[in-house]
Amino acid sequence: MAGAAGAALLLAACGGGDGGGEEGNASGSSMRLALNQTEDHPSYVALDNFGTYLEENTDGWDIEVFPN
């Protein structure tokens, strides 16, 4: 029973998206990340800076970081 539940969760995580294939990736994408840390925490600062770095150095990829 636990194996079936784990498999269902794994497959559910693979769903979604627009079905655009590689064409959808050409224009980039935005990843959303939530933390239970404040804006002053080093993890938030590092991830926020990494999101800025990605946006500047890739074709539209970025990370939206949500603290707290």
Structure description:
The N and C termini lie far apart (35 Å). This protein has a domain at 29-68. The protein has 68 residues and is α+β, with helices and mostly antiparallel strands. The protein is flat and about 45 Å long. Helix 3 (42-57) links the parallel strand 1 (30-34) and strand 2. It has helices at 2-14, 21-25, 42-57; strands spanning 30-34, 62-66. It has 3 helices and 2 strands, in the order ααβαβ. The protein has a two-stranded parallel ribbon. Residues 21-25 have low confidence and may be disordered.
Write the layout of secondary structure elements.
Blueprint: H1 2-14, H2 21-25, E1 30-34, H3 42-57, E2 62-66
Parallel strand pairs: 1-2
Strand order of the largest sheet: 1-2
Structural class: alpha+beta
Q: Element order, helices and strands?
A: HHEHE
Enumerate the spans where pLDDT stays under 50 for 5 or more consecutive residues.
21-25
Percentage of residues in strands: 5-15%
Rg on CA atoms, Å: 16 Å
Secondary structure tally, helices: 3
Strand tally is: 2
Instruction: Characterize the main sheet.
Output: 2 strands, parallel
**Residue share in helix:** 40-55%
N-end to C-end Cα span: 35 Å
Write down the overall geometry: flat
**What average pLDDT do the residues reach?**
79
